[in-house]
Design brief:
Oligomer: single chain
Distance between the termini: 32 Å
Largest sheet: 6 strands, parallel
CATH topology: Rossmann fold
Order of helices and strands: EHEHEHEHEEHEEEHEEEHEHEH
Strand content: 15-25%
Bound molecules: NADP nicotinamide-adenine-dinucleotide phosphate
Length: about 280
């Protein structure tokens, strides 16, 4: 398959490029310096010149707290930039897959959010990502919007991704115990993104590792047992104690009702074990 990956130097982008390369796809990996998705003309030229069958968009403004003071930039990338890619793909008859977030939900539901639940995003990042979903559908009605959450992986800079390294260095960690999500390994997400890009399906699809989900402190506890780290280094705190600028859903666990579109991802604990093992190599 001839595929363009945008945001190819980010955590998920790199995982996707590694996977496509293993499959011997003809992959073009475009980092921000190769293709800035906010540059509409550049996007249209890049996509039409490339003759791609599919585009997997991993580019995004991902600083959830920073977005509260940089809302224009966040909307430029996460909303309008996604719209440019969608339109360019429709014009070139390429399939378009873009990644959205569990943060489009407000977190008040008990249990898992499915594709049938109505989004109610809170905070600039979440609202811009949801606007990106709407512009993606407007620009390319056949597009696939993959909502995922609590993504961790090699090269990631978020809490989940840096835990094995910090715990390995013997650092003290504060982990939130009253916020729940469905942890997802970038390497596993990459497999589903490729399957969906080739599937001919469309619409919103939730993709996360299997299992009941966890809190950040529960995730940290599993990282400790997986990597042989000292669990007493992990202090449980409440989200209120951390006083972060952006609101976050207290429960953003995702599940899909669209079974059959992609191979279900392994249990998140198995994913953490593989991640920790690769970090310790
Ligand atoms: N990480 C999570 O827990 C999580 C959860 C739910 C959904 N997601 C979504 O998953 C996707 C991938 O996220 P990630 O975790 O891989 O984030 P990431 O590591 O921050 O990667 C995002 C990449 O996009 C690039 N980028 C930013 N602005 C750009 C622009 N204007 N044009 C082209 N590239 C640009 C960034 O480049 P710079 O580094 O130069 O800025 C970075 O390489 C995003 O859509 C994100 O919203 C992530």
């Amino acid at each position: 398959m001839k595929i363009l990956v945008t945001g190819a130097e980010g955590m998920v982008g790199r995982a996707v490029v590694r996977h496509l390369t293993r499959l011997e796809d003809e992959v073009t990996a475009a980092g921000r310096s190769d293709l800035d998705i906010t540059n509409r003309d550049a996007v249209f030229h890049f996509v039409s010149d490339g003759g791609f069958e599919a585009l997997i968009n991993c580019a995004a403004y991902t600083d959830v707290d920073g977005a509260e003071s940089e809302s224009e930039l966040c909307y430029e990338v996460n909303a309008r930039g996604v719209g440019h890619l969608a339109e360019a793909c429709r014009e070139s008859s390429a399939s378009f897959v873009t990644i959205s977030t569990d943060f489009v939900f407000d977190g008040t539901k008990d249990g898992f959010y499915t594709e049938e639940d109505a989004p109610s995003p809170r905070g600039v990042y979440a609202q811009a990502k949801y606007e990106g979903e709407l512009l993606a559908r407007e620009g390319h009605p056949e597009c696939i919007i993959v909502r995922s959450g609590w993504i961790f992986g090699r090269g990631g800079t978020n809490f989940l991704s840096v835990l094995p390294r910090l715990l390995g260095e013997g650092r003290d960690i504060k982990a939130i115990s009253d916020s729940f999500g469905t942890p997802t390994f970038g390497d596993d997400l990459a497999v589903a993104l490729r399957e969906l890009a080739a599937s001919g399906s469309k619409g919103v699809v939730h993709v996360v590792n299997s299992g009941e989900g966890e809190s950040y402190s529960g995730f940290a506890a599993h990282v400790c047992s997986s990597g042989g780290f000292d669990p007493s280094k992990v202090a449980r705190v409440s989200s209120a104690e951390l006083e972060r600028p952006a609101p976050r859903p207290a429960n953003s666990r995702l599940a899909t009702v669209r079974g059959g579109l992609f191979e279900p991802l392994p249990d998140w604990r198995d994913a953490v074990d593989r991640f920790v093992e690769s970090e310790q190599r």
